[in-house]
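note to self — DONT lose this again. spent like an hour looking for the file last time. sequence + predicted structure for the chain T wanted, 685 res
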Amino acid sequence: MKNFKNNYFKYIFLLIFNFFIVMFLSTTVYSLEVGAKLDHGTVGGKLTCGFNQGKYATELALRVLNGENIELIPILTQSTNAYMFDYNEMKAFGFKTYNLPKDSTVINKPDDKFSISKDNFKFGLFLIIVILIINNIMLHINISKRRKAEKSLRESEQRLRILINAGPDIMGFKDGEGRYLEVNQATIEAFNLEEIDYKGKTDVEIGNVNPLYKEYFLTYKESDDYTWERGEMFREEEIVPQKDGNYKVYDLIKIPIFHDNGDKKGLVYLGRDITDLKKSDEKLAKSEERYRHLVESSPDSICTHINGKITFVNHALTKLMGAKCPEEFIGKSVFELMHKDYHEKVREHTDFMKKGNSPRIIEVKLITVDGRSIEVEVCDTNYEVEGELAILSIIRDISERKRAEELQKRIKEEERRLKEAIEYERLRNEFFTNLSHEFKTPLNLIFSIVQLLKVKDITKGENEDKFNQYLKILNQNGYRLLRLINNLIDITKIDSNYFNIELQNCNIVSTVEDIILSVAQYIENKNIEIIFDTDVEEKIMACDPDKIERIVLNLISNSIKFTESGGSITVNIYDKGNSIMISVKDTGIGIPENKIGVIFNRFGQVDKSTTRNHEGSGIGLALVKSLVEMHEGSIEVESEYGKGTEFIITLPVKILDEVTMKKIDNNQKQDYVERINIEFSDIYE
């Protein structure tokens, strides 16, 4: 606007200047050649006039004002001449003015001193009118622009004021002397300025008006002075008291403004109410302090780590590790604290925890600063810190507990051994008691029969039936003694690893079937039904036929002893592909549930009394179990007391390189009879 005004007045000045030169200058401007001759007898001629000179001067001035370099504007050396005549000279010589050339100018006429030509007057008048019109237009444009600018400024100021007052933050302006120029509504409410004329007053003056704020306003002044002294933005927290006795805390920013010469010009301040945030921070700080005190006073060792790097340890862990201060561990890897044997275990555990799984406990060994090994129990919990997964580890020294557990384990082991020794001693005593009974019974019978034969002098010829009966008793009890001795020898060999089995490929089905056929008549004489069934006619496998025979005869002998007359014994063979299952099932008295677990023990019997109804040493089933296991098989028992018992043998099917089928000849059949007599020797008529 300023430049516009300056240029405008320059143009007006030049126009007026040109007008006065051209229209009102009465003195003729002569050239050097002609001007010297006028008034000295020269009537007139072609001369340079003021109009042309003024026109050229105006054009030259405009070009300079428009910014042209004056040194580059050419100098006019030849002016355009016009006819000019002196009226007095013409009058002296009798010349008439109407005879002059067209467009000639006559000077020194008596009435021309203050007159102008008609055309020049019109031009001058037109020029003045144009100047006035342009001036009015320019004034109107200038006023309109000023009004628009003022309106825009007022609207902008109004918008700014609305914007400032709409926010909850305090805002204000001060001059270079610290006097308040303007504040927003939030400041008025915060400082209770509703009834105080604050404009133009300093903090000290406002403090004197309102004693409640006096101390605080003095503090504000000191803060302003410090901000100006710094010469740059300053940020601080200021406390503002409230009428209800409470206070508010503001996060305040102050910006100093200076003149070009460095003098103070003003100060702008912006503030935000952070009271709730400060109170929350105070509560959080108190809470953190309580938890920190709790963590530090905890007897358990505690540490936190992010991505395997330790970020915190408490004093308990510092003491446990034998360190001087917690800072020794900050930034270290958790693996530096652990025994290398547990690194992989801890990695797996950490990966498990990173998946967000619930806390779990692991046991590891820590290596202290002085190299000692400590067994600890670690319970980890996940939590988040600034978007990163962190782990809180609670570590408990379990060295004493481990030692106690180890001691307890040794005590239990010693107790177990003691109980086993006591049980073994008890079983040994029972065994020898039972063994003495087993030996004494057949020996007593043998001696009794021999004594009877001597006393009564019974011979075969006189009473053959009675003699044969006595002879049978002698024979049976002899077999009974032999069976007992054989079992004792075999069980001793098994315990000493001197007992071997001789495997050969044979048909297990025919082997078992031959055994059943050899005892069928004996069982039927007891009025007990014997049934044999198989789902396969032939199954070649590696086994020891003698030991299989002994196993089956022992189980059948047990079934006969505990099955009443009219009962039945069933032997089944099942082909399971890779194994063979042999089942011996009876309808006898069965086994009580609490005795099933002991029947395969050495010297174990369901009825251990010397007055029991059935004879036996108690090592038969233990021997059977050992023989089955030597075939890499297993034996199980299923029984219901009062309904019967089933023994189930499972043997793996294996084939030896050389197939040697065992064929039973007459001598072997005779061996069967001998073995049957031995195995059934404790079954009395």
